[in-house]
Amino acid sequence: MSSPSLSIVVPIHNESASIAELFVELEASLGAWGRRYEVLAIDDGSTDDSFDRLVAIQAADARVRVVRFRRNFGQTAAFAAGFALARGQVVVTCDGDLQNDPHDIPALVAMVEQGADIACGWRQDRKDRFFSRRVPSMMASWIISHVTGVRLHDYGCSLKAFRADVVKPLRLYGGMHRLLPAIASERGATIVERIVNHRRRRFGRSKYGLGRIVPVVLDLLTVKCFLNHAARPIRVFGSLGLASGAIGLGVLGWLAWLAAVDGQGVGDRAALLVGVLLVLAGVQLVAVGMLAEMQARTYYESQDKPTYVIREIRENLS
Description:
This protein has 318 residues and is α/β, with parallel strands linked by helices. Helices cover 48% and strands 14% of the residues.
């Protein structure tokens, strides 16, 4: 079977009620398009019968590939697995809860084929609760846009289209899938945005809410560090360490001058403890920070370790 030109990556976690309709809509929007495509359904450790439903669909449609994780690794890991296994020249990500509209996919793909590296969906008329869902999402998008310099209205929208050669080399950890445009910008990717349709959730419950803001901020700090200091992380920790050490040495030098010149006793002064602590903190910032960053890079990249474990893959190879 020849390779498809388009790969649709859909993370699935306990979405049994929406799976059948999702694939009907994908067929309706892509089947008449006249292009070869595949759907990579990533079962992210579902505890309902989502996997059984996916297997039934895959058995009847060779364009569907089902990847099953051994446990729930999260949406970032599901996207990472989909990117690694995708065979299309363009890769589209889409949620499995029917809130994303598959009929927006051709327009996003067209933007990529016209020259963009990433086309992002913008849920301008979002059908979610205002305070628990929309406000946190708007806050997160505003923070990410201003910290990274990659201005998007809606970082949280999963409906995106990517050039495969842009997204495949990216390493994703933690919850960094929503930061993909910012991560790709470091490689010079061109990013555009398009308003897409957003629908009310009809099945199940949302897995996101106010509690997602803190993890997003922490992931953002990590991405910001990698974007600006990927080649020399010691500049971040070294600068803080040198500043702390310099202040500490200044305090200790001042105390030494008082003891040597004025003959004052300094052993019982709080400044002595502060100076020693600042010097030790400077050494620790340089040493511990550098070791932690380099160990993480060595673990994931030099050994090519993914952030997920696949249990099985169902696909037709003929």
